[in-house]
Amino acid sequence: MLEVVLLLDAFDEMKPEFRSKNLCTNNDLEQLHNCNREKIRVPRVVFLCRSELFAGQEPESYHPLFSLPGSFGAELGKNLLELKVASFSSRLADYLELSCALQVRQV
Domain span at residue 68? Predict the structure, then answer.
């Protein structure tokens, strides 16, 4: 069985008139729901953007932008997961030092 992950990057870099529209509908991702379930699973879709874009907003205000409409949308809506990746630039030196130490130990 084929599993597909779609990475849709740079949501925050889209023109403002497109940012307010549902990404799944605009990219015809609902067609993937109708694919042959014996050969392919419904793909996971990962949307990437800067967290500043939604700063101060409630998740309910922007989650509809990432959900499929209709009956499958209800199924997807409960499976919607938002993750935020924190910058580790302030700890980069510690990370690199530890990584080098671990590589030396493995040799």
Answer: 5-106
